[in-house]
Design a protein that fits this description.
Layout lengths: L2 E2 L2 E2 L32 E2 L13 E2 H10 L7 E4 L7 E2 L3 E2 L9 E2 L3 E5 L4 E7 L13 E5 L11 E4 L4 E2 L4 E3 L9 E2 L10 E3 L7 H9 L4 E5 L3 E7 L3 E2 L9 E2 L2 H12 L2 E8 L6 H8 L5 E5 L10 H8 L2 E5 L1 E4 L5 E6 L2 E6 L3 H20 L6 E7 L10 E9 L2 E4 L9 H5 L2 E5 L8 E6 L3
Parallel strand pairs: 4-24, 10-11, 18-21, 18-22, 19-20, 22-26, 24-28, 27-29
Antiparallel strand pairs: 1-2, 3-27, 5-17, 6-17, 7-16, 8-15, 9-11, 9-12, 10-14, 13-14, 23-25, 25-26, 27-31, 28-29, 28-30, 30-31
Helix pairs in contact: 1-6, 3-6
């Protein structure tokens, strides 16, 4: 029996039953290439593979990563725990919003023309059970229920006291300063579609229409493996050493992309086989993210172990700079491996190219449309047929290339607003799609 790197040849060193379903990929013949829409959103920017390059194009790599997984199974989460995941089902209004005719101003709810005799007072959270006839009113607070018979709310500052029991003022038009029942959303109406990322506003919206919990797809769990014998993890690096930038960077980026880091480990390059055992130990992760071992150097183990495990390669290098050696593979029906370069900026580019779309697919979200804007500045041109990813800052209606974006240097990305994917034929001032990178 033959063993390779301490593992039986033909066995799966990463554990679990291998799954080899057909890729869920849209054929290129079915993908339309359209001009940018009037809004500037690049909704169908999926060019053919660059001639002479076996790697997939950058735009197609994003599409492949997004289409590869099936969304994670939904679960029910209380509203307090809902922010971060994605809606698994459409959010609907359980009651009309507002649920009663509501005063939009402090003042008097009046019936008919004035002057008006004051019949009572109604505050927010209380009801006045009587009805108003012509020439009558109640003093009312913002948010209080408008009593039957009232035709408008006259703001307090627009009235004057007549004798302590009556008020006068210009007769308001019917409906003025009244929020009518259901005018924002009728009962049963759709408020947010499945696939919406849940933020504070959506949680507040759900609560306002009567929900206590939501059906959500949880954040995908990302296990992070940082490889490299040369890395120091604190302080200034020693002679011939490099300070680890990805250990702090990746967990923050994972949150930004919609996932959560379940574990982070540093894995040495030696002994050979250490990476395979580290990947195997990440059994609780939906995605295993490996940095620094995706190329073909003497100490790069990832491609070899994926081949020995029988993993299905979804993306095997991308026609872009930096980040060319990035990869995406399927280990089992519900486990994925993303390989990033070890250089920090290259790894950032690769994460936005493959990890972000993969997390969106696992979460049931659509792949974000990319705005296309004019990009100005100077950059070293990539080899023929390759997309160049550079950090940019907003500059009026366009974007300007930020300095400091070599493969190992993060200054441009740290101060930039987005990554611009400069197509192979880009020239200064030409349009390019942007991957927004909010702080």
């Amino acid at each position: 029996m033959r063993f390779v790197n301490g593992l039986e040849r033909g066995s799966n060193p990463l554990g679990g039953a291998l799954s080899r379903p057909e890729p869920r990929v849209v054929p290129m013949s079915a993908v339309s290439v359209t001009a940018p829409s009037a809004s500037g959103a690049d909704r169908a920017f999926v060019p053919d593979e660059p001639p002479g390059h076996p790697s997939v194009s950058w735009a197609r790599a994003r599409l492949l990563a997004h289409r590869a997984p099936r969304p994670l199974s939904p679960r029910t989460a209380p509203l307090a725990a809902a922010p971060g995941p994605t809606l698994a089902r459409q959010l609907t209004a359980l009651q009309p919003l507002p649920s009663f005719d509501t005063a939009a101003m402090d003042g008097y709810a009046v019936a008919g023309p004035g002057p008006w005799r004051i019949r009572g007072v109604v505050r927010a959270g209380a009801t006045w059970r009587g009805g108003l006839g012509a020439g009558e009113c109640v003093e009312i607070s913002t948010g209080a229920q408008v009593p039957a018979g009232a035709c408008a709310v006259l703001p307090l500052e627009s009235t004057w006291s007549m004798d302590g029991n009556s008020v006068g003022g210009a007769t308001p038009p019917p409906g003025r300063h009244i929020r009518v029942i259901g005018e924002d959303a009728p009962a049963g109406s759709a408020l947010a579609p499945a696939g919406t990322r849940i933020g504070p506003a959506l949680v507040g919206l759900a609560a306002s229409c009567g929900h206590d919990s939501l059906a959500v797809r949880p954040r995908p769990r990302i296990g992070v493996l940082i490889t490299g014998d040369e890395l120091d993890h604190t302080g200034r690096p020693g002679s011939g050493r490099v300070r680890d930038a990805l250990g702090p960077l990746i967990p923050a980026l994972v949150v930004q992309l919609g996932g959560e880091t379940c574990r982070l480990r540093h894995v040495p390059d030696r002994p050979t086989g250490s990476l395979a055992h580290a990947v195997h130990a990440m059994q609780d992760a939906d995605v295993v993210l490996v940095t620094g071992s995706s190329s073909v150097g003497a100490t790069d183990q990832l491609r070899r172990l994926l081949d020995e495990a029988g993993a299905r390669m979804i993306v095997d290098t991308v026609a872009c700079r930096p980040g060319h050696p990035m990869l995406l593979a399927q280990l089992t029906a519900n486990r994925w491996v993303v390989g990033l370069p070890g250089n920090p900026y290259a790894a950032l580019v690769a994460a936005h190219t493959l990890l972000g779309p993969l997390i969106a697919g696992l979460s049931g979200r659509t792949l974000s449309a990319l705005p296309r804007v004019p990009v100005t500045g100077r950059v070293r041109r990539a080899a023929a047929g390759l997309t160049r990813l550079v950090p940019v800052t907003w500059d009026g209606d366009g974007a300007r290339i930020a300095d400091g974006h070599r493969a190992a240097f993060l200054r441009g990305a740290a101060v930039g607003d987005a990554l611009a994917a400069l197509p192979p034929d880009w020239g200064d001032g030409g349009p390019a799609p942007l991957v927004l990178t909010p702080s």
